[in-house]
Amino acid sequence: MTSSINDPQLGAAWRTISNPLSGETVTFVETAEESNGSRVVMQIEVAPGGGPAPHAHQTQTEAFEGLAGMVELQLDKRRIRLAPGDTVTVPPGVLHGFRNPTQAPATIRVTASPAKNIEWGLRATYYMMREGLLPKQPLVAALLLHEGDVYLPPLPRWVYWPLIGALARLGRWRGGERVLAEYGARPKRV
User: What is d(CA 60, CA 119) in angstroms, rounded to the nearest whole number?
Assistant: First the structure.
């Protein structure tokens, strides 16, 4: 059985999570709880070739700051190189992703505001990927996307949101929340 992220025996280790599939290691500098829900601040190390697929957060702004190395940020159809000291703000609803196109690790700081469920969603997703449960459990994935307000292309949004909503309801009915409870307590809506 997997330890919960709230397990007191984990100590400070709970601040850092890794996604081996996307080559990201996220350290939570400031959590949703610590900011009273106003933001989540993450330092993300991105392996060469690593980074998340394009996505959009429907209700959150994300501010990106280059700390070390170079990351290429995709913002809708544009590509922006983010070097140390560079900053870019992504408004809610804008399709974005990032990649490390170099042969060396890169580090960025990302501030998501308001916090919403981004921390919980990342923790649950990364832990489930490491356990091999995603993408094997598509109804749980739909529940994560729905609760996290995350859009993934290519479906048009007018098709995507009703479909994800229906799949999330089915995932809840089939016990998806019990599966997610293994990876941390369900957050309160902020």
Answer: 12
**CA 143/CA 149 separation, integer angstroms:** 10
Assigned token pair, 39: 């933001």
Domains and CATH numbers, the chain: 8-113 (2.60.120.10), 118-181 (no CATH)
Residue 72 three-state SS: strand
Nearest to 104 by CA among 80, 72, 70, 79: 70
Collect all residues with Cβ–Cβ distance below 8 Å to 158 and sequence separation of at least 6.
none
Q: What is the DSSP track for 25-69?
A: EEEEEE-TTTTTTS-EEEEEEE-TT--PPPBEESS-EEEEEEEES
- For a pLDDT cut of 70, what percent of the chain falls above it? 89
The pLDDT value recorded for residue 61 is 97
Q: Which residues, given as ranges, of the chain have pLDDT below 50?
A: 1-7, 185-190
